[in-house]
Amino acid sequence: MYRIKTPKGGQNYWVPILANPDIVEHYSENVVDTLHKKNLLLLGEDRYLSTLMLRTFPKRKQIFVPQAVCKTVVPDKFMVLLSQRRRWINSTVHNLFELVLVRDLCGTFCFSMQFVIFIELVGTLVLPAAISFTIYVVVSSIVKKPVQIIPLVLLGLILGLPGVLIVVTAHRLVYVLWMIIYIFSLPVWNFVLPMYAFWKFDDFSWGDTRKTDGEKDKGHGGAEGEFDSTQITMKRWRDFETERRRRMSAAWPQAPMNGYSHHDMY
């Protein structure tokens, strides 16, 4: 949810935010001819809009709105989950590539936001290697004699600290159970899904999570050629609303209500 414009100073002075020419120019880009652009504009256009807002207005804030309600379709099949995470991971990586170049973002503690974003980008890219090394540490600590206790204790502390935070903040033990399930599923989340996403860096389809109108084998945004702007209907909201009400009133007599038509009621 973005502000279209916002007041600045006095005397009823407004400045454009979402309607800023820089935002509109970059977000309306229709020449998508590189791997980076396709991941930004065909897979992660919603995240790219946030990236553009931060890049254009680095001194402004994006805040969490707890009143907002969002509904989505949760994948119930593993292949659907694969396609969803492929889109999310690849779009995240390319958006982080854009954000890491922004110098004016506010920092955290003594670190610049560029450094924080760079660490997040590196952490995303090395997820498969990190989980592989974790499994190697566990297996080697158990197999080698004598058993290496310190690596296992440190690993347990790292994975168990979120459980302590859950108990302290949420006060619901059932969340600890879900955390244990998540820990056992880490090889899937941190190895299988990222490796599949990196292997499919050139796949720009939206998968089976949701189908878009007219989507075929090439998927979302797969069409090539010059865009014909005459296909877009240019109309003011007042004219659109008037035409919509006229169509509704014209269709009203043909719509039966409780077994009676509009004419039967008079």
UniProtKB/TrEMBL annotation:
The keyword Hydrolase does not apply. GO terms for biological process: chitin biosynthetic process. It holds the Pfam family Chitin_synth_2. Its main location: membrane. The keyword Glycosyltransferase applies. It is an enzyme of class 2 (transferase). The lineage of its organism: Eukaryota, Fungi, Dikarya, Ascomycota, Pezizomycotina. It is a multi-pass membrane protein. It is found in: Cell membrane. One of its GO terms (molecular function) is chitin synthase activity. This is chitin synthase. The chain crosses the membrane at residues 125-143, 150-170, 176-199. PANTHER family: CHITIN SYNTHASE (PTHR22914), CHITIN SYNTHASE 3 (PTHR22914:SF16). Its EC number is 2.4.1.16. It comes from the Eukaryota. One of its GO terms (cellular component) is plasma membrane. Keywords: Cell membrane, Glycoprotein, Glycosyltransferase, Membrane, Transferase, Transmembrane, Transmembrane helix.
